[in-house]
Amino acid sequence: MNYSVDKDGFYGDFGGAFIPEMLYLNVKKLKDCYLDIIESKEFKDEYKSLLKDYVGRPTPLYYAKRLSEKYNSNIYLKREDLNHTGAHKVNNTVGQILLAKKMGKTRIIAETGAGQHGVATATVCALMDMPCIVYMGEIDIKRQAPNVARMKMLGAEVRAAKSGSKTLKDATNEAIRDWIANPKDTYYLIGSVVGPHPYPDMVARFQSIISEEMQFQLKEKTGRNYPDKVIACVGGGSNAAGAFYHFLDNEKVELIAVEADGLGVLTGETAATTQIGTEGIIHGSKTLLMQNSEGQITEPYSISAGLDYPGVGPLHAHLFKSGRGTFLGATDKEALEAAFELTKLEGIIPALESSHALAVLNKLDLKPNENVVINLSGRGDKDMETYMKIMDNE
């Protein structure tokens, strides 16, 4: 595949493993064993069994009739919101918890922004009876209170990151510090296609179940096993990586990634990494990130906690730079309008993250005979407080 990672963990110019010396052995051990383990028949059988009977896969590929009529095209929604825990994140946590057990690890740490990855991690830790510590920005803890409660109910310890912007970036920093302090027994369960190699490749492989299912579902519904367009929101980019994975080398498929423009790309209150970011290193990999002229991270902003990250995974940086992917943006306002539109037209309340993907439908030159798949990465239960504030102000 032209867009696969190479032996050193690079996608074109991006990727690699830029890590402190104290993490070197942990990362090397993971890199040396992950493919042998996850490609084994024993692992695949256990992983696929849990996805089917515990997560609830395959998720439906739903033809959104009224949305299609409005935008004069054939629009399908890949219903990752119907997964156990309410988002695509669990595809990855099921895979990594099995990997951690086979590596002999006994303690799990994770970071989370919107809380979806934290809930998915706490869930599989409960399932496997393993202790779980989730780092979360202090601001995100306040705006995603329902998910914090779910994590605690599942037995996880939620630790607040109180430095910097007190969001996902800072939670990730705290998780890395924990891993450095506890290298022997601890497995760092990263939730997106970010971090040092092999995490971006490994997470993309676990999330590729999304596009794998799309292939046979599209064949059944349209007679062809690929769409004309796939649309997904991008913060770090795990749901987009999974939705794009099996179409990366099919140039007939347009891959559309949607970033959070926040209050507007030029306002300074944005998370639109590819639009204002430059090449640099963040959380162990070379990629595109928001930084000032001295290389200091620029604080991101988005109404959506899951997209509030100052970088993008190296796979997506490569898709952007090579031109293989089309990168668009949606503001907070546009995402909110799209969320209420989907709710009204289809009776589905989407997560704020997914609403960004929906928000670009009116920016595309859609055609009546085209098949468009939007990856509905999560459900909107966790965002009800934000949605209720909007309704109260109307």
TrEMBL record:
InterPro entries: Trp_synth_b_CS, Trp_synth_beta, Trp_synth_beta/beta-like, TrpB-like_PALP, TrpB-like_PALP_sf. Pathway: Amino-acid biosynthesis; L-tryptophan biosynthesis; L-tryptophan from chorismate: step 5/5. One of its GO terms (molecular function) is tryptophan synthase activity. GO terms for cellular component: cytoplasm. SUPFAM superfamilies: Tryptophan synthase beta subunit-like PLP-dependent enzymes. It is an enzyme of class 4 (lyase). The keyword Magnesium does not apply. Tetramer of two alpha and two beta chains. The beta subunit is responsible for the synthesis of L-tryptophan from indole and L-serine. This is Tryptophan synthase beta chain. It comes from Vicingus serpentipes.
